[in-house]
Amino acid sequence: xxxxxxxxxxxxxxxxxxxxxxxxxxxxxxxxxxxxxxxxxxxxxxxxxxxxxxxxxxxxxxxxxxxxxxxxxxxxxxxxxxxxxxxxxxxxxxxxxxxxxxxxxxxxxxxxxxxxxxxxxxxxxxxxxxxxxxxxxxxx
Amino acid sequence: xxxxxxxxxxxxxxxxxxxxxxxxxxxxxxxxxxxxxxxxxxxxxxxxxxxxxxxxxxxxxxxxxxxxxxxxxxxxxxxxxxxxxxxxxxxxxxxxxxxxxxxxxxxxxxxxxxxxxxxxxxxxxxxxxxxxxxxxxxxxxxxxxxxxxxxxxxxxxxxxxxxxxxxxxxxxxxxx
Lengths: 140, 176
What we know:
Largest sheet of chain A: none
Radius of gyration of chain B: 25 Å
Oligomer: heterodimer
Strand content of chain B: under 5%
Number of strands of chain A: 0
Largest interface: A-B, 20 and 20 residues
Structural class of chain A: mainly alpha
Largest sheet of chain B: none
Number of strands of chain B: 0
Helix content of chain A: over 70%
Shape of chain A: elongated
Order of helices and strands of chain B: HHHHHHHH
Order of helices and strands of chain A: HHHH
Number of helices of chain A: 4
Distance between the termini of chain B: 26 Å
Distance between the termini of chain A: 14 Å
Mean pLDDT of chain A: 81
Low-confidence stretches of chain A: none
């Protein structure tokens, strides 16, 4: 389906990392149990679950959109990738500057692993942007 | 006696060249009136946002319940005001220096969209704040500000002429 685009392997590795991150986050969202003795338990539980669900839905939708737009137009695929990357970076910066004052994720276990993998996801998205923007042989 | 190195004809040519460049240099922004209107609107909006935060903080407008969610909201609002202030300082600077304006607009657009979504998710149940009319009006008009930033990015002209004809000739190496 995508043979004619001749995208480099690094691009596919990056997009697979993105999907793997989504799957891992989904697994955590379904299986994780938050500590009922933690301070602000109700607020944290409510906020983290809602935030993670909606963010995960947007991320998955964005990654699927990249694949769909790659099939039809390289230019639009580039726009979708840049928008998704910008959103992921904004989210990461916003979390560190603002939301971590309020929302506390439980430490240890798979949740910490997912949190620590967020920069890897952002690097993968940035790499996809570079591949789609600067690869010389890519044309619509 | 000092030898005259420049003729009258050349002086007239130089003066004419500078007189042509004068209107371009004085019209430094080079942008349309709709751009200026949007730019003023956004600056005013951000100033009102910062003012609203400080008024909420000192509890001037309303007697809010000091429950946990309201306190958390004010903490988040403080962080957003801080980030937004520096982003809009960058916006004004890039508009003045005509460099990287669209990139900063894109960053602000993405950041505001993200923060609006986050606020809606986290604080949709915050009744005592949303009951205040001024605050509700402010929250509802946030999409208007997002649209204004997008419009600003679209109608911005980043390749207008600011250099004088003399400079362009000198740079291109055709001056004799």
